[in-house]
Amino acid sequence: MSELPLPPAFRPLGKTDIAVSPIAWGMWRLAEGGRSAAEAAKLVHAALDAGINFLDTADIYGFDGTGGFGDAEALLGEVLAAEPALRDRMVLATKGGILPPLPYDQSADYLRAAIDASLTRLKVDSVDLWQIHRPDILAHPLEVARVLDDAVASGKIRTIGVSNFTQQQIAALSHFLGEKLVTTQPEISPLRIDCFENGELDQAMMLGLTPMAWSPLGGGRLAAPETARENAVAATLDAVAQAQGVSRTVAAYSWLMAHPAGIIPIIGSQQASRIAEGAQAATVRWTRTDWYAVLVAARGEALP
């Protein structure tokens, strides 16, 4: 039975010459629990040493509802200030456009301020990827595009992406941008499969966008399945995981990575061992039969 191809060791970010690993590490919970810069540095090293060079953060990471806005970026900034050589080993991505308690603001003045604030917290002159975190319905895409194009022209950001945008919102922003979008970051997991059939990934392939999957483990539900559907999906992942000597988590990442759009799952763990383990996903082989078995379990019904 023919196997689907393994992901490359590195792939281009969108249509650029920036090479990223086929799996990323996200820092949503980096600042939790009073983690020190030294402890955060160990996690950064764990990712880089495992071959994961794509690091994803956001200005909202660390916000607890009342405070902490920017804490994850600031903590990573401390790590980079202590070890400047780490910056050259990573493709650094961050996001902005959420302003508690509004909640969203992509007005020109705010976007400019948000980009500058992220660079200050991160203690860097530029980031490799800057993404709009969630769309602001009250912002005209032309206005947003002008700010982002200017940020690229000024060298503050190298590339532009979006997160949680609809296909129509992506199309509208793309229409006004001089620079091309390189990423889209929706929620994708074996438990959230909408994008496989609603055209999101088809659009990404058509436009040359690299899909970055947030919450690739279904918000942790794959680790502790409760419903019949969750257990069915876990069982189909386990069949492949056990056959190839990996964990269910690794199998879940690799299932996403087998898609031809080049989905990059974002590891959410803040444990060095789990981050390193995630890199094993690039070695898991899928057949079409096994891959579709997971999809059928997630659909809860047979394919048409």
From TrEMBL:
Pfam families: Aldo_ket_red (PF00248). Residues 22-290 form the NADP-dependent oxidoreductase domain. GO terms for cellular component: cytosol. GO terms for molecular function: oxidoreductase activity. PROSITE patterns: ALDOKETO_REDUCTASE_2 (PS00062). InterPro entries: AKR, AKR_Detox_Biosynth, Aldo/ket_reductase_CS, NAD(P)_OxRdtase_dom_sf, NADP_OxRdtase_dom. Signal peptide: none annotated. It comes from the Bacteria. PANTHER family: NADH-SPECIFIC METHYLGLYOXAL REDUCTASE-RELATED, OXIDOREDUCTASE YDHF. This is Putative oxidoreductase.
